[in-house]
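Onboarding guide, step 5: your first structure request.
Type a short instruction followed by the sequence, for example:

Predict the 3D structure of this protein.
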Amino acid sequence: MPDLVGFAVAAAAAALYLWGVRRVRRWPWRDTVAFLLLGVGSLVAVSAIAPARFPAYAVEVMALLLIVPFLMALGHPLQLALGALPPSGADRLRRALANPVTRLFSQPIVGPLMLAVLPFGVFFTAVLPESLAHPAVLALLRLVLLVAGIIVLVPLWESQNLESRIPYALALLVAFIELLADALPGIIVRLDTHVLAAGYFLTPRPLRDQQIGGDLLWGLGEVIDLPFLVLLLVQWVRSDARDAREADEALDARQAIARQAARQDSTAGPASAEAVWERPWWETDASVFGDRASTFGEQPKD
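The system replies with structure tokens like these:
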């Protein structure tokens, strides 16, 4: 049956987002279109699917876990919430995002592994037949998958708003491992000769449908991981750009202070006040010269 909980979540998400857009003036229209049309629209489309056959069930699981959260993240909902909420509400949201448990599951090292493990818990445990036998369990499963995807992808996409330091090189390594792990559920389902949740799917050829579902799990898991890798690369570039900008601003501030001090020095002449020289960063960076960085360029002592 269609997911009424999904429809309710989509309506609530759209209403809250529009409320935030109204509160935050000059909010980018591209973000609004991305969230409402792609994110909420995809959730409505997935919620309309009735998992009467195994391929539909498999597509719904992957969509709720990866596709819908990724498309919602494109609308920067966290940034909008921080701008729309009053100061006290924004502070509470920041504290919630800084909670150790929240930060653990929103880090790209733990998050991809969680997304890779969840399909195993769905297709190779009692969750599969129970969700088909009980609509309440199916609705809860859909909600858990959606929330898990949002917890991982949204904070990662908006990491510049969370003041977190992400080891991107290690995250990319884990993401490549997760890329391989995502293929395992689909491969196992494709090669399994026993019907999973026999008797629950309305089809004359359940094993054939299961094999098609395994192919979809395998293909979607690999294709959906590509935007995730692109997301990590984009965040890495953004992080480097922020670090470079902060370093430039700090250097400019130090030079301005040095010039001001030179001008106030009663013994310094006009020329010396302007000729403030600072050693290049590569002469003092320990990562370049190691322990000799502090003495590099100094005159040898007699």
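Each response can be followed by summary notes, for example: The two ends are 88 Å apart (CA to CA).
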